[in-house]
Amino acid sequence: METGTSENAGQTAGRPTGRAAGRPADEPVWIALPPGLLRMRRLLLVVWLGLLTLATGLLLGLFAGPAWAAFALLPAAALLWGWPMLGRNWRSWRYAERADDLLISRGVLWHEETVVPYGRMQLVEVTSGPVERHFGLASVQLHTAAAATDARIPGLVPAEAERLRDRLTELGEARSAGL
Prior knowledge:
By secondary structure, the chain is α+β, with helices and mostly antiparallel strands. The protein is built from 4 helices and 9 strands, in the order βββααββββαββα.
């Protein structure tokens, strides 16, 4: 199940704007990731594969001859292939807050949907590495009792990540108190 433009009709800049026309009342409202994550990942792709292309071309051209420098086209081809793949991957990530749980959906070839009940959450972290901070992004990491169900939402705007952390922590405490 891929996220297309028709499924994002009720969203603006990663935030839901209301229920899209024709959706059932029990259908979750999916929130897409902000475009800053895609920009960051594409910039990293260009930097790393661009440097690899340049280094491969120069080193092979100097030490093995100009014909061998053509192997520098391999990282360049990977860059051209990776650009649209990063876009597809970014579009596949989304999350939805429901009454009793959080849904996280991702994946293009292997679609994965994680359901994390609020009562099972033990810890909700907001992390932001140096590159993420430069792009104004943060990630939300959810820890549960079972390590296999730990979930992560990358590339959120820090204000949204903190709001989500506070809301999930509040709901988790309320649900676990009732167990």
